[in-house]
Specification:
The chain is mainly alpha-helical. The chain has one domain. The protein contains six helices and two strands. It has a two-stranded antiparallel sheet. Helix 1 crosses helix 2 and helix 1 packs antiparallel against helix 3. The chain is elongated. The relative contact order is 0.17.
Length: about 170
Amino acid sequence: MRPRRVQPAGAHLLPLQVCQRRLLFEWGLGILPAFLILAGQTVLGGDPAIQEHYGQPPIEVWAWFSPLVMPTLLLILGVVGAQAQQHEGAGKSIDRFYYRLAFTLAAVYLGIINVIVIGAPILAETTQMFSSAVESLLEHTSLFLGALQGVVDAALGTLIVKAAAK
């Protein structure tokens, strides 16, 4: 039987500010590909480009995308910004498990959104057989993405509540 490895006290803790800033960076970079694609199709391609790729007018595509990413991004940005101005959070720490959980869930969530935004135009161009599926893609994915967003936000909440608690 292997002897149990004993970790020093505090070895499982990470600095709270660092974790929050990493999550802000992850969300900023995580939405960037989808945002740039949608913005480029809206500005450069005009209405027909988005209508052709997503089967819906640009306003509906943006109405699908924005609520999936902006509330969480703005919440993280607000917390990090408030702490920076008030010089709070220094010395606070968070359990490594909760940080890794929040980071991993957010990465999966943002990855799914990017796959949908990138994959829908490819699917629409490569096959006409699935055109009806592409048209309803945003409607159907918003159902499970809304539930997944709740799970991600709950995990992120441990980092937000920890910041306000002390």
